[in-house]
Design brief:
The protein is an all-beta fold. It starts with 12 loop residues before the first strand and ends with a strand. The mean pLDDT is 86.
Length: 92
């Protein structure tokens, strides 16, 4: 059974890469993340977060994820539990 306990952005590990006006964020979820968990991303005034890629670090597969408003949905089509995801997103 999938554990639907909530995770937060600050539960994960963040690395930010800035070049000029561009910023890419690499976020590693905590190892307790489950498929279909949602995470509220930080707000950047005047910018909208956009997904670059999302990977299941256990097997290296790309997973179906998405961002709506400020909310990231992890592995929307999967059924994994207690998984670490690596997510790259940017603000435009």
């Amino acid at each position: 059974m999938i554990n639907l306990a909530a995770i937060t952005y600050t539960d994960g590990t963040v690395r930010e890469y800035v070049s000029g006006e561009s910023k890419v964020v690499i976020w590693l979820s905590p190892s307790t993340a489950d498929a279909d968990d949602t995470v509220v991303l930080p707000t950047v005034t005047g910018k909208t977060p956009r997904l670059v890629s999302a990977v299941d670090t256990g097997d290296g597969s790309f997973v179906t994820s998405g961002i709506s408003t400020q909310t990231l949905t992890l592995d929307a089509s999967g059924n994994g539990s207690n998984t670490t995801y690596c997510v790259a997103f940017t603000y435009i």
